[in-house]
Write a structure and sequence with these properties.
Two copies of one chain form a homodimer.
Chain A (H helix, E strand, L loop, with lengths): L7 E8 L1 E5 L4 E3 L4 E2 L3 E5 L6 E9 L6 E4 L2 E3 L4 H11 L5 E3 L4 E3 L8 E8 L9 H16 L6 H9 L13 E5 L10 E6 L23 H11 L1 H23 L3 H20 L10 H20 L1
Parallel strand pairs in A: 7-11
Antiparallel strand pairs in A: 1-6, 2-5, 3-4, 5-12, 6-11, 7-8, 9-10, 12-13
Helix pairs in contact in A: 1-2, 2-3, 5-6, 6-7
Chain lengths: 304, 304
């Protein structure tokens, strides 16, 4: 470690995921613990994804990060949680080719540089933070030779952005809300792999690539505080839908899958509207798309 | 009654009413019995109103009606209910000046002609059916010398259009959902007269005067059948809001009145969105208006 000129890098690519039973509302803001289970489909990494390179060098004087080429602050609690959790699990790293040897205890003194790129609009409702934090945690874990299994990594990514935990698996993924106060059992599990339902195609129609007017974080906080309907949804509606959705995925039952996805997405938007002041994530164009989809579902249900 | 040339007419004017705690969902489609109480403000009859003239003559061969100058069918159950209920309560009518004498039992053989005009867009979300049926029932009751008190008349108007029962009173009106299976106790009561809160001004901003894509009748039927949130709203949310709104009206507490009105309107739209297929009664323009109003309420709450 005397020579300060070496640099060690890891690059990873992580797709975004789209919830089919929605996550909306936290019971713990710091640990990011949700008020209900959720289920998502992880997209093909060839399409919407984040590519992150993490680098470590004794010449780096502080942790730094660039998002889409622009430096951003790592001071926020969410970045700090992920960095802290990964660092605390770091192990010895040997790169014989480069002649680099990092001891477990060295990681506390070393700084990282992180460069992250999204190949799709950021903060526009396409789960950029999910892909971003999943990729950050995964690439840092690789760099630091963390040996945790994927589920444990997902619980770390969750502390960056809730839905990020679901992006650490391909295919169909369930985020189990968990019961523990410390969040240790709030993590993602894979329900079915990406090969399970090969002919399922997801089409993303970008209605607007502008940044959302209300971030998910503040939106769900306001919903938890003010929407009477959200609490009924999380306690009474979602648990039943989770079981129905697991069954629909297992049996590749497209009519049920499509119907549940549409109704749950609409209910999420309904809860946003029940929030004070109300949150509108849809506009006239997305209204028309949703109505078109409703017609399709009905068609599919009656013809399949 | 031998001379067939006489004609007797009554003209009445009834304002529309705007619900501040919304009616959405019936427990009986035929009798029009709601799943929750609602509260409305009756507008000034100088502004949005229906003007209806009802005429009776032995020369009329059938009941007929014209709405905004265009003949419409009276065959529907709702018109038939109102006509039947009023006819069954008709009394002797004497017009000495014209030399007309109608006996109670004659009304079953006489036919009426009805001409109704709205001075505002019909079926565009401005409660035209409320004003229309209230005016129809009121003018028929006058013509046929019906002696029922206003509350009983409101229960008849309710069978034409639920919210019509509220337009038979001025000021602040509550439609009590009632418990009886025959609907006899589902009627309107006046909470406070039009003079109670003199400086309250209601501004109606017409975003679109096009007819709604989903009628209230079929919309609320679909919500009752498919929205899990509606049932929670009607059972758990509305009863509390009714009490809060009664208190806000009684004490002329504008911040509470405005806040409750906005949140309940938004929750009604939320339930529409939770319906399958979803119902959208708002567009981008009304979204902007709602957000502007939210800001105003907040301002008023903090400054008053």
């Amino acid at each position: 470690m005397a020579n300060k000129n070496w640099i060690l890098m890891v690059t990873a690519q992580t797709p975004t995921n789209i919830a089919v039973i929605k996550y909306w509302g936290k019971r713990d803001e710091t640990l990011i613990l949700p008020i209900n289970d959720s289920i998502s489909v992880t997209l093909d990494p060839e399409h919407l994804c984040t590519t992150t390179t993490v680098a470590v060098s004794p010449s780096f004087e502080s942790d730094k990060m660039w998002l889409n080429g622009k430096e951003i602050s790592l001071a926020g609690g969410r970045y700090q949680s992920c960095l802290r959790e990964i660092r605390s699990r770091a192990n010895d790293v040997e790169d014989e080719e480069k002649g680099i040897s990092i001891k477990k205890q060295d990681w506390d003194k070393l700084h990282v540089h992180i460069a992250s790129f999204n190949n799709f609009p950021t903060a526009a409702g396409l789960a950029s933070s999910a892909a971003g934090f999943a990729c950050l945690v995964y690439s840092l874990a690789k760099l630091m030779n963390v040996k945790e299994e994927q589920g444990k990594l997902s619980a770390i990514a969750r502390q960056g952005s809730g839905s990020a935990c679901r992006s650490l698996f391909g295919g169909f993924v369930k985020w189990i809300m968990g019961n523990e106060a410390n969040g240790s059992d709030s993590m993602a599990v894979q329900l079915a792999s990406e090969t399970h339902w090969d002919d399922l195609v997801i089409i993303i129609a970008v209605v607007s690539s502008r940044q959302k007017e209300t971030s998910s974080t503040s939106g769900m906080r306001e919903s938890v505080d003010t929407s009477p309907l959200l609490h009924y949804r999380s306690k009474e509606v979602v648990p039943k839908r989770i079981l129905q959705m697991e069954e629909a995925i297992k049996t590749r039952d497209f009519p049920s899958f499509a119907k549940l996805t549409c109704t749950d997405s609409n209910q999420f938007h309904a809860v946003c509207l029940d929030t004070s002041p109300p949150i509108f994530y849809m506009n006239d164009t997305s209204h028309r798309q949703v109505l078109l989809l409703s017609c399709f579902s009905v068609l599919l249900i009656t013809t399949l």
